[in-house]
Amino acid sequence: MRITDLIAGLSAILWVGVMASIVMVTFQAARGTKLKNGRSIIIAVLAAALVVTTLSAGLVFIEPQERGVVISALAPKGYREEAMTPGLRWIVPFVERVVRYPISRQTYTMSIVAGEGQVQGDDSITARTANGQEIFVDSSVIYQVDPDQVVKVHILWQDRYPNELIRAQSRGIIRDAVSQYGVEEVVADKRFELVKYINTKMTEKLKENGLILVDFVLRNITFSPEYAASVEQKQISEQQVQQAVFIVQQRKQEALQVVETAKGQADSAVIAAEGAAKARLIQAQAEADALKLIQDAIANNPELLTYQYISKLAPNINTMLLPSNAPFVFTIPGVTP
Question: Cα(first)–Cα(last) distance of the chain, in Å?
């Protein structure tokens, strides 16, 4: 509890005491019995009540999140030019008063959803894009009173600045900003540029009136039912086109895979054929070399052929009959006829 509240409570108690003292003295006088020192008691309690009341009227405690504007009958302009800062402060009782202003951050929300903003019901901002499309913008303005400009805010707006400054300026600036962009730019390509433009303009306007813009939040953009339906249909068509392109690409990939597979098989067949041809050449060369060796061996030893021939015969064959048109018998060497 603040000390100013305690003093105000004590002042109220003392005034109750003054009234009670007067009633008691009056009651005793009506009964014909005079209360000893009754007048002194009343005067003492009254004096204490006046002192405490004066003290209560002069002491002001400003919270850390507040600034106070002193309205003074003694000041030439009717107010003190410097705002009252946090702490226990003193004003001239009964000729000065303090109007408090919060300097903490505040949020003003305008939404299409009932209950989300300061205004009940649909409070979204209706705006038209550069190509004439109507959209509905939900937004929040986060701001605060400039601690050094509290007196200026009081002179210009008093406590009307949320509705008459924040609301009015933001709606006008948003409409002006949206009108410079096409609908697709607003929702996609240049949304951040749009927010930056609104932020800059809002900062300038609020600064002129003693407020600070902390942030501007573009919460949501809603389209008319007709345009929303057309956008949905367009998205469906684009998805179908993308699906068709995907299928074509898939078919191309499959065809390329078939070509690569066939190419691989062809290359494999060529390699196999080349390998077989080389093997045949090597085999033919080996056979030729073997025949050359046999030829040389026979030339150097003519009886070798006879020996090879005999070695191939069965062991019990001693005589070979030649064909009928060869009227002679071939004598096997080393065998007695």
Answer: 152
